[in-house]
Amino acid sequence: MTPVPSPLAALLRETIRTGGPLPLADWMALCLGHPAHGYYVTRDPLGRAGDFVTAPEISQMFGELLGLWAAAVWQQMGMPGTVRLVELGPGRGTMMADMLRAARVVPAFRPALSVHLVETGPVLAALQRERLAAAGVPVAWHRDLSEVPDGPAIVLANEFFDALPVHQAVKTRHGWCERTVTLGPDDTFAWATGPADPALAARVPEFWRVAPSGSVFEWRDEAPVTALARRVARGGAALVIDYGHVDQGLGETLQALAGHAFADPLAAPGEADLTAHVDFVAFGRAAAAAGAAVHGPVTQAAFLKSLGIEARAAALTAKNPDRAAEIATALARLTDTRTKTGMGTLFKAIGLADPALGPLPGLETAP
Ligand SMILES: C[S@@+](CC[C@H](N)C(=O)[O-])C[C@H]1O[C@@H](n2cnc3c(N)ncnc32)[C@H](O)[C@@H]1O
């Protein structure tokens, strides 16, 4: 398919012409994060008019329960006088606004906290600024977790890690090769594979190395997980919610979304969201190796129910009877376990923490 002409497509074409095929992870990083033309740099992709809807945009209940989770964890930490409340990839700021409102139930928590938003997109950062203008707590923006000042921290991330670049190794008759993007006929973008590489084969869990030709193994750079785990292991906790799997295996999950529909990941670089499932086994292993205690993962349904989403929905409905249908629909959607792709099943929650903290709310339940 001929790609939609765009400055990013021209730039990617030139990069491939001069430097050779791009590994998929580099393609994904540029499509999403190119400093001038990246998907997350140029737009607000959320909501009905955008490309996808996330849990905090479905219902205020999601952020509210996470606010209570953060307040409970702060109490577990011994109520430090200052604490960084950090969100990675805060979207429109909806979740943080709902969290801060709900956290009022623990009055001493708000005066102790400063909010730190890790965001690379200027359009979304402007929306966050607007959304949190009246929050009544200090808010600072950063491009990376490493910029958040030291000290006890509670970190939250919803649908952040799925947007980080993914690598794919493809089994060919020559061995395991990295998936790349090259130029096909008429300057279209096309899938290719790099040379067979024993270092890639070593990444594939031993059990699957003899997989048939055409098999795919996905992985991500562990550095962001390691950095998060090291940070909270020094004092604090993190809650990561995302879609992904708890049974490591072969198969590809890369997908492009545009206008709430699946798209070709190569057709319109920078114009479609690119994501891949989070491998929670690899995530937990990397976090544990970096010194954090790992809690969960549990399904989103189990996590939200254990935090009391059903009681919250009932209370909200009692206060707003005219919104009863909307609240019931949101509850059903967030906790949907009827199929493998329902949000309640597909999404998982995992906690990383200072090993001194002990069990974290909602994460010790059966999955
Ligand atoms: C799928 S959206 C999720 C937004 C929000 N958490 C929610 O649930 O509505 C991904 C978010 O991560 C941000 N983001 C993506 N890649 C990033 C990166 N490398 N560093 C910081 N933020 C990033 C995006 O701009 C956006 O705010």
From TrEMBL:
Q: Does the keyword Methyltransferase apply?
A: yes
The EC number(s) attached to this protein equal 2.1.1.-
Task: Name the top EC class.
Answer: transferase
Keywords, alphabetical:
Methyltransferase, Transferase
Q: Which GO terms describe its molecular function?
A: methyltransferase activity
GO terms, biological process: methylation
* Highest taxon, organism lineage: Bacteria
Residue ranges crossing the lipid bilayer per the database entry: none
State the protein's name: SAM-dependent methyltransferase
